Amino acid sequence: MRQEIIELLLLGIGETLYMTLVSTAAAYVLGVPLGVLVYITDSDRICENRVLNLITGVIINLVRSVPFLILLVALLPFTRWVAGTTIGSTATIVPLVVAAAPFVARLVESSLKEVDAGVIEAAKAMGSSPAQIIYKVLLPEAKPSLFVGSTIALATILGYSAMAGFVGGGGLGAVAINYGYYRYQTNVMLVTVILLVIIVQLFQEVGIRFVNKIDKRTKQ
Amino acid sequence: MIKFEHVSKEFISSKTRFLAVENVSFEVQKGDIYGIIGFSGAGKSTLVRCINLLEVPTIGNVYFDGVNLTKAGPRELRKYRQKMGMIFQQFNLLAQRTVLENICYPLEVAGVKKREAKERAEELLKLVGLEDKANAYPAQLSGGQKQRVAIARALATNPEVLLCDEATSALDPITTKSILELLKEINQKLGVTIVIITHEMGVVKQICNRVAVMSGGVIEEEGTVKDVFLNPKSETARKLILPAREKLLETGERRVLRIVFDGQSSFEPIIAQLVLETNTLVNILGADTENIGGRAYGQMLIEHQSDRAVMKKMKDFLRRKGIYFEEGGSQE
Fold first, then answer.
1. How far apart are CA B154 and CA B147, in angstroms?
2. Mean of the per-residue pLDDT values of chain A
3. How far apart are CA A97 and CA A117, in angstroms?
4. Please, are residues B31 and B191 in contact by the beta-carbon 8 Å criterion?
5. H helices of chain A, where?
């Protein structure tokens, strides 16, 4: 393979990692509070509130039901307003975060649902406030599950980031589209796909190992 | 200490209404070990949750130290909850915290400084006999050890009351006994009032001084354990005390006596004396007695085929010995 293609691929890897990691982090900044909110306002939870639960639920489902490629295009004006441009890796982060945050919120919600209701009841019986239950019980107890969720989020966001190549985003996706698809360079396409698989595998493997290390439920 | 005034709790969902607790009034005095016994679905767990308002009564008043908790605001209620420890059938420990950190939890909630909390937690671990498990995680402990940690955690804030919701139901008989002994020790040494929910008469017999018998959301009878055990008035109490009693009463020609041992010397061969004195053979149908410190506790069902005169002799003998008994079987 020629030198320039290799450089292109290396750059693609860097951009992909940059987009994925930064977007995931930002998606969690928005998604965790959203997920906690939709969880605690649900019926029979610590801050039951039907109206708030309905509103957050609808927002999450609304964004999640729009296909990412369409969201990407629809958000172009917003992206330009936030990032100043619509082209390149940094600009891609904007739609990635918008698309991933509701997804993360659902992941967080399902992790919190795994926390034993009895433990929450015990915390209440000890006089904990709702905030104390969230910070001292719900989030720490759900931690392993939250990290499992984050590996799923990383893989999904990586997949989304590859699609951004169609509208001028960077990364391995753009390499695959521009060289593998438009120029019929099948070998480049193949290499990018393999690289993407390896990255997802790495995220998954490292994530699971980390979770096993921090989860105290299985320690003997 | 704790007083219920006409408390009812109804669960209302879109389709069904269910009255779990109905017009319950009772009082727990300071220093009591108060048992609430009943079969599954009797409303015991709901009732105990009404004490610390984990379940808010639909109507009625709950008083704690003279304060009406049903009128307290959320902040005030949290303060009162810190004065009431609670333990559960499933222990409900924080799985991601060590034993020591679990015991520190209620202290963190109450705003106690970290170092003080740690000292207090270590003290409590000693009380429950688990000093060596401070840095273990709940998953590494046995059921009995988990319940000990839960007890230590419930006592961390020096509560006046300890609520136990089927605290021994997930434990084997030997562990149950040791946990009950620990609870009794806590009651005697620390003066903590204890409320125990259970479906096992044995638990009530072993440590409670008062008991309320619950069925269908209603308290059917209430009194000292001795009175209820010796002379159960409600059907539920009878069934709980002697599960097989109903069947025995139906056995046509037989005469059955229920003899209750209530702290008589276990060295005295009562049944053998009874046989010798009345010259009648008796058949022991069932017995559930325990020897606690040389005293006999429990009951025995004996069957005999004798006439009235002999029967009278038997009763006189038992009365003389100060042993409570109850007649069953077919009577002329």
1. 10
2. 93
3. 31
4. yes
5. 3-40, 50-65, 68-74, 76-83, 89-113, 117-125, 130-132, 139-163, 171-175, 186-214
Tell me the pairing of strands B17-28 and B2-12: antiparallel
Residue B37's φ and ψ, nearest 5 degrees, are: -120, 150
Supply the ipTM of this predicted assembly: 0.88
CATH code where residue B82 lies: 3.40.50.300
**Is the same domain home to B178 and B212?**
yes
User: Cβ contacts (< 8 Å) between B169 and chain A: which residues?
Assistant: none
- Within the 151-170 window of chain B, which residues sit less than 8 Å (CB to CB) from chain A? 153-154, 157, 163
Per-residue pLDDT at B226 exceeds 90: no
One-character DSSP codes across B281-315:
--EEEEEEEEEETTEEEEEEEEEE---HHHHHHHH
| Beta strands, E only, chain B | 2-12, 17-28, 33-38, 59-64, 67-68, 84-88, 161-165, 193-198, 210-215, 218-224, 255-265, 283-292, 295-304, 324-329
| Closest Cβ opposite residue A122 in set B86, B137, B157 | B86
* A157 within 8 A of A130, measured Cβ to Cβ: no
Cα(A31)–Cα(A25) distance, integer angstroms: 10
CB B2 within 8 A of CB B27: yes
Token couple for B10: 């109804």
Q: How far apart are CA B144 and CA B123, in angstroms?
A: 19
Domains annotated for chain A, with CATH where assigned, are 3-214 (1.10.3720.10)
Measuring CA to CA, which residue among B137, B127, B242 is closest to residue A215? Answer: B137
* Residue B71 DSSP one-character state: G
The Cα of A144 is separated from the nearest Cα of chain B by a number of Å equal to 9
Q: Mark which residues 105-134 of B lie under 8 Å from A by CB.
A: 105-106, 108-110
Residue B253: half-sphere exposure toward Cβ, Cα within 13 Å: 3
Q: Do A123 and B105 touch (CB under 8 A)?
A: yes
Q: Please give the single-letter amino acid code of residue B125.
A: L
Residues B204 and B257 in one domain: no
Q: Is B194 exposed, middle or buried (0-12, 13-18, 19+ CB in 10 A)?
A: buried
Interval A30-47: pLDDT, tens: 999 999 999 999 998 999
pLDDT tens figures, A122-167: 999 999 999 999 999 999 999 999 999 999 999 999 999 988 888 8
Task: Check whether residue B278 and residue B138 sit in a common domain.
Answer: no
Domain check: are B108 and B144 in the same one? yes
Give the pLDDT band of residue B248 (cuts 50, 70, 90): low
Q: Which structural domain range is residue B135 located in?
A: 2-232
Secondary structure letter of residue B9 according to DSSP: E
CA atoms within 13 A on the CB side of A80: 5
